[in-house]
Write a structure and sequence with these properties.
Distance between the termini: 31 Å
Number of strands: 7
Largest sheet: 7 strands, mixed
CATH architecture: 3-Layer(aba) Sandwich
Shape: globular
């Protein structure tokens, strides 16, 4: 079993779109209407939107590979790219997804550890993320990784307002 991480660039745009659609669908399709899923996927993961995000200086994407196959990805934001103003000393994990076929292999932890490493290299004091209140597996995972719930915010899936828990980890 070989795991590695690669920072994404514009050459990865189509692969990023494919894995974004696939993992978001796998994660949320069962609990959301097809109409709301389509609206969200079309808005969040169209090529122009992803290109804009890839070109944002304070955002970075990383693919995780498992035995040389793209198995998941991570998106982090700092400074003004964060989706909520949490301060200059914080790093946001905006997206962290692993394909269902590769779950339970330690890839989520591997990706999160990459975020911790980047935060420490840049002297950030906290890492935060938003997670859907109904995504119990993810919430349990983040708790195991040292995150605690510190707030909540609204997330729109199409026309449906949902609640995301804001979870934060203070770095030593």
């Amino acid at each position: 079993m070989i795991m590695n991480i690669k920072k994404c660039n514009l050459d990865d745009l189509h692969t990023l779109q494919e894995i974004s659609y696939e993992t978001f669908n796998e994660t949320f399709k069962a609990q959301n209407s097809p109409e709301n899923m389509k609206v969200y996927l079309d808005r969040a993961f169209n090529l122009q939107q992803l290109e804009n995000e890839l070109c944002t200086p304070s955002s970075e994407f990383f693919f995780v590979y498992f035995n040389n196959e793209v198995a998941g990805y991570l998106k982090i934001n700092t400074k003004d790219a964060q989706t909520e103003q949490m301060g200059e000393d914080t790093l946001e994990v905006e997206r962290i997804y692993v394909k269902n076929a590769f779950k339970k292999q330690g890839l989520g932890k591997y990706l999160l550890n990459k975020a911790f490493e980047i935060a420490r290299e840049n002297n950030y004091k906290k890492i935060w993320l938003g997670v859907w209140e109904k995504n119990e597996n993810a919430i349990a995972f983040y708790k195991r990784m040292g995150f605690i719930q510190t707030g909540e915010h609204s997330f729109y899936m199409g026309d449906e307002e949902q609640t995301d828990f804001i979870m934060t980890k203070t770095l030593a």
